[in-house]
Amino acid sequence: xxxxxxxDLVSEETEASKxxxxxxxxxxxxxIKSAVAEGDSVQLIGFGSFSVGERAARMGRNPKTGEPVExxxxxxxxxxxxxxxxxxxxxx
Length: 92
Prior knowledge:
Blueprint: H1 3-14, H2 18-37, E1 42-44, E2 48-55, E3 58-61, E4 68-71, E5 74-81, H3 83-90
Antiparallel strand pairs: 1-2, 2-5, 3-4
Helix pairs in contact: 1-2
Family: Belongs to the bacterial histone-like protein family.
Protein name: HU family DNA-binding protein
GO molecular function, one term: structural constituent of chromatin
């Protein structure tokens, strides 16, 4: 499912206009991105939580030459599905 399909389904379910649903979805995604970028976590009970994870520096290899290359430490986004979400996926 892509964003437009999600907007269509939510619009049908809530009887709200597609433009309104698009605006709310964009605002929600922007808010989640901003919060996580600032180092906060976002918890949506029953769905899951978004947070920042730290990646340690490590050694990798250049796939072309096989030469060892140092990969710098960095940050990544983590998502952990909530129990209700996991249960609904496993119920099928």
